[in-house]
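Problem 12. The chain below contains 422 residues. Write out its predicted structure in token notation.
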Amino acid sequence: MTRQPSSGPWRLASRTERMNPSAIREILKLTERPGIISLAGGLPSADLFPVEAMREATERVLRDTPREALQYAGSEGFGPLREWVAGEMQRQGVLASADQVLITTGSQQGLDLVGKVLIDAGSCVAVESPTYLGALQAFVAYEPEFTTVESDDDGPRPESLAAARSARFFYALPNFQNPSGRQIGVSRRVELARAAEAAGVPIVEDNPYGDLWYDAPPPAPIASLWPEGTVYLGSFSKVLVPGLRLGYVVAPPALLDKLVEAKQAADLHTPGFNQRIVHEIVKTGFLDTHVPTIRARYRQQRDAMQAALAAHLPTSGPLACRWRTPGGGMFFWVELPTGVDSDALLAKAVERGVAFVPGTSFFAVAPRSNTLRLSFVTVAAEAIERGIASLAAALRDLQAESGARAPVAGVAARSRYERVAP
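Solution.
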């Protein structure tokens, strides 16, 4: 890899060569153009933000504990909020105490702290294929070697995980995965937990979407099956608001101490004011009535996207596409015809007024360029239908333009997270 020259007297660390801007954030710039229907960003719907509940909770915090809320706070997090998280974990079958909970500045910080504590340069990290782009960005700064745990329609295959014995950990999203929307079933979770324990490979279980189920609630977390070998990450962004940047990590005690030390070096603590506001809301049971309203809205939009895909994208012939209807979460994962490059398709789609995220960024190794991710939660049903119709038209445009010379770059593409020779 060719090193980029530093600017002026600044000499960049070698690890920065592997850092890249978020492909999603770059694509979101396209969506600022007038008339673009964005099926790209995985943003919660701002229409569902509980503004009045937030206002009332903020007023109570400033009225009752203003000095405490505005002062520095403990690194582990606000005690009552940690107790609430522990209670939620126990209701899901995970035997965890508040002492095992660390409140983080978004679950993204949790991923970064896990990487900082567990990854050495050159060590192995096992991931799904595809996997969450933000996790790859968090881990790559610590210079790991990625290995892929092969998957089928039921999720990661236990025998593939068993072969990854050298991995520091296996990163997985069991519930409505970003980007694929896939959910790991009960029996596969049991098999994965057993395989991981036998291989000595801990699991980092990321669950930002578990509450967003539309057909049936997800099974108990993997952490309930192997608590001493699992780090669990959760988030308030999808069920309340993302702007407060609140997440949490539930970890075995010995590991939690190191995560706290890593957090102290990063930001001392997550804003205590934000933590107290969220606790004021959740302690009343507000989520028990609020989250079902989110589910109902998102279910309608999911169904609208499924109907639009079925109406406009071919499932047979030279332009045949493949997808599955997710049981929750925010995303559809679409496999395009072999040889069609989703980056090239994006350019055509933007011309027709719709944007999506090409799939290559979600692969740590061996990316598949004939894939893309569609988000449905921030777009009205009518706009979803128009957007998918435009996407189908763009696919026809690309096919007509390429003819017999259809783009095949995706077959031999290299992930930006793979190491290359200097």
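Discussion. DSSP finds 13 helices and 14 strands in the chain. Students who got a different answer should revisit the alignment rule from Section 12.3.
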